[in-house]
Every structure is written in structure tokens, then in C-alpha cells.
Amino acid sequence: MTTATDGAPRVGIEALNVHAGLARLSTRDLFEGRGLDMDRLGHLMMDARSIALPCEDPVTNAVNAAAPIVAATGEDRDRIELILTSSESGVDYSKSIASYVHEYLGLSRHCRVMEVKQACYAATGALQIAAGYIASGLSPGAKALVIATDVSMVDARADYAEPATGTGAAAMLVGDDPKVLALDLGAFGTYSYETMDSARPLPDHDIADVDGSLFAYLDCLSQSFSDYCGKVAGADLRTTFDQLALHTPFAGLVKAGHRKLMREARAPAEEIEEDFTARLRPSLVYPSVVGNLCSGSVYLALASIIDHAPYRGSARVGLFSYGSGCASEFFSGLIDEGSRAEMARMGIAARLDARVALSFAEYAELLAENSRCLVPVPDRKIEVERFQRFFEARPGRERLLVYRGVEGYHRRYEWVEEETNR
Fold it and tell me: Is the model's pTM score more than 0.70?
């Protein structure tokens, strides 16, 4: 494949980490607790989802995902010149999540601080903005931090979307030493239009046209890939990409999207299931136990590929990002053996396994308190000590930022130190 920017500098993701909270709930337990049709459980292709605690919010998720990355930058910490958070779980109409994250990560005061929003697409838009800044060469050696962060607001009103919705954050350091994913600069296809398939009109209320959103996702997948092919000479769905990472509201939709693209590529029926197992299954290992991480979803899928796909040498990954409303993009990049070593340092699998399992009754009890997480109030206090058992289950007992409450509309946080966990 060739692009208009062949020969451009290497730019992409230098480090990637995912924080998916401290608690989880079995998808089967949720189906049984809600009295949902068990025949539809297999269609979701999910085993569990992450559940937020009242002491967790979009700020703590973002900081806890990014903190190991920032700590590893050492003397280069002050070269982080741009921080972009993406979220559909905003904590204020004006003040950004990024402003809190910037403070608790201890970043330079000479850093651009912003938040972007476009449902589950926003992190990819932010990644492309950051990559463009790095590739421009305006500030040689500069780095950017992109963090997709959200909390789940769904409950029984969400029907079958409730078992599929996760919580957490994906953090990416973007620079000119892309140890995790070297972007194919100039290789992208986009497709966007206005539609009301999903929205959050109130801080504690989601609305969704499930069928409308599924059709919009599938339409955008075909159209953005077609646009990609128009920009990248020789691009072919069946031969260009060694692995595929698609935005994953639930794995069953990814399978439907893959089948649609393969049929459009005139693949024989017997090839489709085999191809799904080889090129998509590795991307679904983490999403099947976390749930939909909103704009971090496709990067959770990328982490899953690097940790589980049996590639050798280098491998090209095709990525598809979709956000309701709607906006979408198909793009690509290269991973290699170094990507696997870099991701191993983050220990994502161990942290997902260490999440504390909740019963359905415990989950239902948390819902009312969690639903107030984003509702603006002048004052609120959260008794963090109630959640000690969740902190003690954390591997390595590294520092953890927790949400303490609100004073005069100012959200308050504190670090749970290793000593506190003993």
C-alpha cells in the first residue's frame, strides 16, 4: 500500500495503558438479575463488564490510566506539550476533565490543556490532532497525551445496552518514537453525518435508538473504509491488514461489521468465519470482560491484539472508530515485537483479573449513588474508606487517585497511597 505521505517521519503511540476500574459484574448475573432473555446472551459475546465505584469518576479513571505512562517518561515529562481528554461524561459545562488530570499528573504549566467530545469517536479525532502536531515538526521532540475516559450511567432503562456498557479509560502517549503503534500517516478514511442514534441530554440519563445506532455503525464502517481505499493505493480488506480492531460496543456487533465488509470484498462464505477468528478474535479478549469503553474502546481492542495475537515481526492493524451522532474513521498502523514488550510492562491482564467480583444485589445497590457522579452539586462527600477491600485487591498496590467529593462545586481528589492499603 502507498499513501501521499510515504517517507514522512514515524509518528504514533509510544505508550498505551488501560484502567478499567476495581470492580466487575458477570454478564450472566446481570441477565439473570434483570430477567433478560438468556437466548440473547450469546449474541453479546461478553463474559463481564467493569463497574464504577462511587469513589471513581472520569478524572480518576484518566489519571489512573495515564500515571504509569507519565512516570515512565522520566526527564521527558516536561516534553508533554499537549493533553487532550475525550469524554461523554463531562464533569462541568466549562472546566475540562483535562484541567484536573493535568494537575494530578503533575504536568508542565507550559502545556496545552483541552477536552474534546464526539461520543465514542472523540479519542481518535484527538489522536489524529496530536499526531499532526508531532508530525508538523513545529516543536521537535514534543509529546502529547491523549486520554479517553468515561463512566457508565446506564441502568435497567438501557435494556440490553446495560450488560454491554463498561467504565474506565485508555491513555496514549503520542510522539516520534512509536513503540506501540506507528501510524500510517495519510492513511485514513472518514464518514460523518448528523443523526440522533444516542445521546446524553442530562448528566444521569442516556437515551439510545439501538437499531438506529447499529445501522449507523455498519453504514459508517463501509463508507469510511471505502474512503480509506480512495486515499491509499492498493488497499485491500483481505490482504492489507494482519489484524483488525473495531470499535466494540459489544463483540456481536464487531462480528456483524466484519461479515458486512467481507461480503462487500466478495469473500467466499467459508472464508468469513475463519478470517474472523484469525483477525478479530484477538481484539475481543479485553472488551469481552470490560464492556464498551466509549471512545477508549478501539484502543482497548488494540491493546488486546498486541497482548493476544500470535503475530511475528511487524503486523499492520486496521482500526475503525465510530461515535454516535455520528462520526467515524478507518485508519491503520504498524505494530511489532517491541509493541508486545511495551504493553507487557503495563500488566493490563493482571489488573483486569484482580477486579473484585460483585453480586447483582451489590451492583444494584451502587447504581443510585453512581448515578449522581456527574450531577452538579455545590457540596458532596464520599466515604472512600468503605471501598478498602477493592484497593487491597489491586496488584502492586501502586498509588491510586480517588474521588473524595465536591466543595463549592470544586471536585476533590486524593491519592490512596501504598501505605494506606496495608
Answer: yes
